[in-house]
Amino acid sequence: VLDWGTGSGAVALALASERRDLSVTALDRSEPALRVARANGEELGLEVEWIASDGFAAVAGRRFALIVANPPYLSDDELRLAPPELAFEPADALSSGPLGTEALSGLAAASGEHLDPGGALVAEIGAGQEEAAARLWREAGFRDVVVRQDLAGLPRVVEGHR
Fold it and tell me: Distance (Å, rounded) from C-alpha 1 to C-alpha 67?
């Protein structure tokens, strides 16, 4: 499993905790975020391969059965209106551009060469992005594309298979 843009490592560590049989790799372009993620993994006693990488560069040639991501999905306007508790987060961890779907678009386009046949790409999406995200997944060649709801019943995760 690859956790693309791991940040503090929460998703990678949750997967490693729940499924000890998984080999989990997590990457992020932010060295400070990776330091936090490594420390979190050490504190929990969980084994994850932590890699500094801009996009998929550091895992070129590698394939995964599953790629998960919580990419930046706020639009620049949404970021300006974000609640104060998000002020400690780096802006580029929250917004990838004017539409908020720029990171999703890049992720969908680039992930195919890193997935095993039949592998899945699963990503968190922002409010109101379900149609755009599903379209991006389909345009990138994913099949069986579905948008899943979170515990509050909101469409917050897009999934597709190779």
Answer: 6
